[in-house]
Amino acid sequence: MLTQVKNRHQSKDDLFLQRLKNKQLAKLTRTIKNTSHTYEFQNKLAHDRNFNNIEKTVQESWAAAVILRNANVFGETVYKLCGKLKSIWSESNNSEAFAFFKKKVEEDVDIDGQFARISRQDITSVLLSAEYSAEMFVRKIQLLKSMGTFIIDHAIHDADKYAFLFKNNASPVEKIKQRNRPDSLFTVRGRSGVLSKTYREDIGILDKATFDQLDPKLQKILTINGLTKIRPLFRTRISHKLADGSRAFVERQFDRDNPLLASISGSTADIFIAAEILDDKLSQSQLDQLTLSAIALIVGGGYHAMHEVINIRSPHLNVIASIESQMRLKNCSAELQEYIAALHDACDRLR
């Protein structure tokens, strides 16, 4: 009876959002199957459709687009970290190591067809910018990712040589790597090579056939000016259990019927490695906001599915609930309701 009374004061869209949150909470806590998925399934896998979870791919694409469109709500941690990266990037250091760092980051962010591509000459202005636009937000995340990539590929092997990168953190870089790139997730990664690449104007992980079926309102939300990309399509292998008998990441996601694009996200690990090196005092709420930012870049660009991102540092995170609470906290309830209504209509249309 109390539930009925409460529901009379909730809109249809609020009830839809509540169902989404409850589904996500159930997904985090439900008992998963004990069956083992092996390589015999490999040749049958085709993007996310083999998991019968088209509604989830719509929700994940929606989440990435909403985060991107609200940099003023979700970007505080990224903008703070880029301020610290700016001080490193702008310092007068004529060493060979510093020149090599800048060269590799420039090469990493200036790739034709890349989501959130940054021309080399624009890197400084991106780091300096206080503009809260989707395009600027995602480019700042890209720079953090590129810093982390450099640390994994180069700096971790000679920390003394690249001491200018570690001046904000006294923790051994190997420990930072292990916290953000744990062996338990990366030992059996499950990713195969790129099968194809296609030009896409929409945000997220939907195939074109599904995107074309969406309500025009949601299509508009998923299309952001200036953010196009050449999107790679991977085929994910179902992995055997780990040596200790536990399920590998890919197998766990298969059991939970979650979308899989390219298995656990190394790019997310790179973002968190860079973040911890730039600021070793980030709170859990800041780490969670950084996870949402990683979703904006990595799910938004179509490179990974959402659970391939959140399992790096925020496996507890209910993304839908977090988006709702942060937007309401920033007095963006009206915009949120518009996003929810578009998602609601699209899901009804696909059923």
Task: Describe it.
It is a single chain. By secondary structure, the chain is mainly alpha-helical. The chain has one domain. 55% of the residues lie in helices and 5% in strands. The chain has 18 helices and two strands. The chain has helices at residues 2-7, 12-29, 54-69, 71-74, 76-90, 96-109, 123-128, 134-153, 173-180, 183-186, 208-213, 216-221, 249-255, 266-278, 284-299, 307-310, 319-329, 333-350; strands at 191-200, 229-236. A two-stranded antiparallel sheet has the order 1-2. α9 (173-180) crosses α14 (266-278).
Number of helices: 18
Largest sheet: 2 strands, antiparallel
Runs with pLDDT <50, length 5+?
A: 1-6, 28-51
Q: Give the overall average pLDDT.
A: 86
Which band does the percent of strand residues land in?
5-15%
Gyration radius, in Å: 20 Å
Q: How many β-strands, per DSSP?
A: 2
Query: Globular, elongated, flat, extended or rod-shaped: what is the shape?
Result: globular
Q: What is the SS-derived class?
A: mainly alpha
Placed side by side, the strands forming the largest sheet appear as 1-2
The domain count comes to 1
Q: Distance between the terminal alpha carbons, to the nearest Å?
A: 30 Å
The level of helicity is 40-55%
Q: Encode the helix/strand succession as letters.
A: HHHHHHHHHHEHHEHHHHHH
